[in-house]
Amino acid sequence: MHLDELEKYKDITIQAHDNPDADAIASGFALYSYFAAKGKNVSFIYSGRYKIQKTDLKMMIEKLDIPIEYRQMDDSYIKGLIITVDCQYGAGNVYKYKADDVVVIDHHQPEIATSSLKSFEIASSLGSCSTLVWRLLNDAGYSVNDDIRVGTALYYGLFRDTNQFSELYYPLDLDMRDSLAFDRSLFHQMRNSNLSLKELEIAGIALIRYIYNSDYHYAIIQTQPCDPNLLGIISDFIIQVDEIQTCVVFNQLEDGYKFSVRSCINEVNASELAQFLSQDIGSGGGHIEKAGGFLSEHWYDMLYPDMNVESFFGKRLIQYFESYDIIYADAFEPDMSEMSEYLVKRCKLGFVDLHELFPTGTSCILRSLDGDIKLVINDNQCVLVEDDSTTRVISKQAFCENFDSSMETCDLKLEYPPKLRNKASSEYMELTQYMKTCVCKDNIVFFAKKLERGVKLFEKEAETYMLGKPGDYMVVDSLPHKNILLMSSEQFKKRFNKAGE
Ligand SMILES: [Mn+2]
């Protein structure tokens, strides 16, 4: 969706979800500012049973002069367009007003039929709706950093929705965090007015009501309704307990369950665990040690109507711990008799010689869907980009051994085009502008087998593992040091042919 599609409306009402949080207020305010600058008759509302109470939100509204208004739950009709932000029109967490036309701008899992909407933008991979609005404003050529009030609101919206940035991982979220102009002093005031004395008590009660599993050393805690950021604070605290290696802290919101995950062992990547816990009923992600997620009530009730949420987390955790084998590559001898021979297909990939973007010695961050990689530019580096956005850095020598390069430009369609940022100057370069095509050499023999169980593979001295799920492939090359790779069956079929076929 492009915002200029909505400029045909004279009357625009932006609606945040009931009980609005910082992200809903920020997203609505940024859109309000955009449409107001276009001369529209625009208003910004929220409804529900309660008016905004939280100190940080009241401060945000007052200091940033945000024109949000409370509206009664009545059957009034909204003339023109209604845009629901950080929520989906017709969902349980937003009061439904009748309107001429409806547009949804949200970052939660889709939970409504979108056919009746005029238009919608639901980007479930984003950490905040603020990020989505920021992207829409940028795409519309609106210069967000010209208004520090809007910048501060969006920054705070993302901060709160990602548990104080600790559960932040999607590259576009990182881009927004790194580029917004915001009022630091107000930001500090708001971030330190987030919890109430009541929430201090909730944290205290939650801490004495933990469930601990001594087989797998995990803890689960449910809290009474509270600010979702409290979940992160409680998790950060209990992960320090010597016997606890992973933990999940959750509570119920109006539309589902929010949870934080922490891990202090290499064998559990918190981000991957959060994805596992929310699989099919929500979304999750984050970092190696800290992550979070959300279970949609709509999907939960449909799939687990009779299970309480605490048992659900307990069951999924046990399922998680029992579903994989751990392999340390330096002590592992793959059983080739179980494997078949394969040859690489001559598929096309993109590659970039980093040396062309910044001079040798420049400290950079390579940002892609695979996360941020810190590197210093040297003349022996290439970046390979696959059409599923997989982005990795390899040496020129490994590149020459495995690929034939061409000077043909490469225009892969990518969900997030990788970028290289100069750390000192903050200057960004889009890799796609420099990307050329290369083709895999097809003379190397590989051995592979389909995995029946999950595998966590630790490369030599690595602190993080590669994950293989049942149905994925384990691939071993025929070089003397036997490099092991794990890949999805889709990736595998794209890249390999059975030898002799
Ligand atoms: Mn949000």
Structure description:
The protein is of the alpha+beta class and 501 residues long. It has 4 domains: 3-191, Alpha-Beta Complex (inorganic pyrophosphatase (n-terminal core)), CATH 3.90.1640.10; 197-322, Diaminopimelate Epimerase, Chain A, domain 1 (Roll), CATH 3.10.310.30; 327-342 and 443-498, no CATH class; 346-440, no CATH class. The protein is 27% helix and 31% strand. It contains 13 helices and 29 strands. The strands form 6 sheets. A 6-stranded parallel sheet has the order 3-2-1-4-5-6. α1 (22-37) links the parallel β1 and β2. α2 packs antiparallel against α6 (184-191). The protein is globular and about 70 Å long. The two termini are 45 Å apart. The model has no long low-confidence stretch (mean pLDDT 91). The protein binds manganese (II) ion (MN). Manganese (II) ion (MN) binds at residues 23, 86, 107, 128-129, 161.
Instruction: Give the ligands present.
Output: manganese (II) ion
Number of domains: 4
Coarse shape: globular
Strand order of the largest sheet: 3-2-1-4-5-6
Per CATH, the architecture of the largest domain is Alpha-Beta Complex
Low-confidence stretches: none
The number of helices is: 13
CATH superfamily of the largest domain: inorganic pyrophosphatase (n-terminal core)
Q: CA-to-CA gap between the ends?
A: 45 Å
What's the assembly state of these chains?
single chain
What is the overall pLDDT average?
A: 91
What is the level 1 CATH name of the largest domain? Answer: Alpha Beta
How many runs of DSSP E, i.e. beta strands?
29
Category by helix and strand content: alpha+beta
